Amino acid sequence: MRRFYRLAQASLRSQLASRSPGVPRAPAQLLLKGQETTQGSASTSWLKGWGIVGATAATSTMFLGTSSAFAAPIPQAEVVQADGVRVEASGGARVQHKVIFVLGGPGSGKGTQCGRLLEDFPDIAHFSAGDLLRAHVQSGSKEGNEVAEMIRNGAIVPAEITVGLLQKAMAESGKSKILIDGFPRNASNRDTFLKMVGYDCEMVLFFDCPEQVLEARILGRNQGRTDDNVETIKKRFRVFIEQSMPVIEQYTSLGKVARINTDRPVDEIYKEVKRLVAEV
Ligand SMILES: Nc1ncnc2c1ncn2[C@@H]1O[C@H](COP(=O)(O)OP(=O)(O)OP(=O)(O)O)[C@@H](O)[C@H]1O
Ligand SMILES: O=c1ccn([C@@H]2O[C@H](COP(=O)(O)O)[C@@H](O)[C@H]2O)c(=O)[nH]1
Question: 131 C-alpha vs ligand 2 centroid, how far in Å?
Answer without folding.
Answer: 8
